[in-house]
Amino acid sequence: MHSPRHTAASLHVATVVLVALACCSCAIRPLQGVLVPTNETVEAVSRVPILVATTRTRSSSDPGEMFSRELSNEIAFGQVTVSIPPDHARAVGEIQWPVTPPGDPRRDFVTASAEYLDRVGFGGAITTVAKAGHRSKAMVFVHGFNNRFDDAIYRFAQFVHDGRLPVVPVLFSWPSQGVASLSSYEYDRKVAMQSSAPLAQLLDTVNSNPSIKEITLVCHSMGCLVTLEALHMKASRGGTMPKLKNVALVAPDVEFDRFLSQVREMGARRPRIGLFLSQDDIALKISKSIWGGTTRVGDINPEEEPYKSEIAQQKILVFDLTHLGGDDSHSRAFDEVSTVMGMLERRLAQGQQLGDDTSRTASAR
Known about the structure:
By secondary structure, the protein is α/β, with parallel strands linked by helices. The chain has a single domain (about 5-350), classed as Rossmann fold. It contains twelve helices and nine strands. It has helices at about 5-15, 15-20, 120-130, 150-160, 180-195, 195-205, 225-235, 255-265, 280-290, 305-315, 330-335, 335-350, and strands spanning about 45-60, 65-85, 110-115, 135-140, 170-175, 215-220, 245-250, 270-275, 315-320. It has a nine-stranded mixed sheet with strand order 3-2-1-5-4-6-7-8-9, with helices on both faces. Helix 6 (about 195-205) crosses helix 7 and helix 7 packs parallel to helix 8 (about 255-265). The termini are far apart.
C-alpha cells in the first residue's frame, strides 16, 4: 500500500512524468509500420543487424510493429536489419524517423529486413552475424521505460553505428507499454521485475555460442532493474557466465541501497561494472519523487559520501556525464555516444579496466 507521502508525490508529478520520463527523443515518429522492410536499395548507407530476444507477444494488429506491448509466457526471437543514412545526411546521436513508413533511406532510418526466428535460428543468426563481420564480441542491450519495440530496435542500431562498435548486437526487449504516464511507469516496473529470468536465459544462450568469446551487457534506466535482478539471480544459484566480462549501467532507475546490496551479493566473481550517471537527470529525480525520495543510482553525486566510499569498495568504475549537457539528460549517453566512447577509450588506454580504481570519476579531459 502506498504511503500518504508516496501518494502525494505521485499526484504532484503525474502531469510532469508524461514528458520527463520519456527515454527517447521528442522527434516526431510514425505510430505504425516502422518495421515494414523497404525494397529500395541505396548505396553509402550503413546496415546494422539487430538480433532480438523478447518477452513481448507477436503483434496481431500492425505487421510493422512485430512485437506488441503485451507480456508473453515464452521468449520469442527475431532479427531486424536497420538502414542508417550516410553521415552527411544526419546528425550523430539522433534517430531520423521517417515521416511516413517505410521512409527514404537517403535521409531516414528505415528497416531493410525483419524476420521472426525460432531458438535454433536465433543461435544460427548469432553465428552468421559474427562470421560476416569478423566479430567475436557480443553486446546485449536492455532498454528502459517508455520504449516500444521499434523504439528499442532503432535506438540500439543508432548506438552501435555511432559508437562504431565492433560487436554482434543482441537486444533484449521486455514489454514496456511505450507510453509516458504515471500508470504506465508503475506497470512497466512490475513487468520489468518479471523479466529477469528470461534475460538470464538469453545470456546463457549467447554465452554458450562458440562464435562469441566475450559479452558486454548494457542497460538503460529501468532496464537496469531487469539486468541487476538477472545477474543477482544467476549468482545466487551458483550459475556462471564466463564470457560476460563487462556490465554498463546507463542512467539506472534503481534504488541505490538495492543496487549496492545486489552487487555485494554477486560476490567477487561478478563481471566488471561501469556506472554512467548524470547528476542533473530530470527523469530520475521525478522517479525519486514517485518512490518517496529514495535515491536513484543514476543521479547520485559520486564524490559525496556514502556513495564515494561504497562505490570504491565495490570497485565500480564511474563515468559522470553531467558535463556533457544537451536537452535529454536521461539519454545523453546515447546522444553523445562518440564522446562517451572516447572517455572509455582514454580510460582503457591508461591501463584500466571496468572495475579498477574508482577514486576518480571519469571526465572528458
